[in-house]
Amino acid sequence: METKELQKRIRQKKFFHxxxxxxxxxxxxxxxxxxxxxxxYAFEPSMSEQELRDSLNYLSESGYINxxxxxxxxxxTLADCNFDEIEAKVSADGIKIIACVRTDECIxx
Length: 109
Hints:
By secondary structure, the protein is mainly α. 49% of the residues lie in helices and 11% in strands. It has one domain: Arc Repressor Mutant, subunit A (Orthogonal Bundle), CATH 1.10.10.10. The protein contains 4 helices and 3 strands, in the order H-E-H-H-E-E-H. Helix 1 crosses helix 3. The model has no long low-confidence stretch (mean pLDDT 94).
């Protein structure tokens, strides 16, 4: 196997693993929103901020987490708002992933 192919597989597997960790991390407070900055501190140094952003973006775009602005409570995305102004909560579809009722090939639970 070529080095580039091996590196690609390693990055892909880490992304799948990170997605599961982030989804479960957001779910820790269950029915409450958690600030993204708190998640960042919880996952450092094992996950970089960019890796966290990649996972949050995937989970949000897939409908597994809901994100809102901390002050206004309005729905938002990483593209529309500063990282430190966002909080997240697991959606019903995200809970199904955690409970293994639903699967997503990009999330390792």
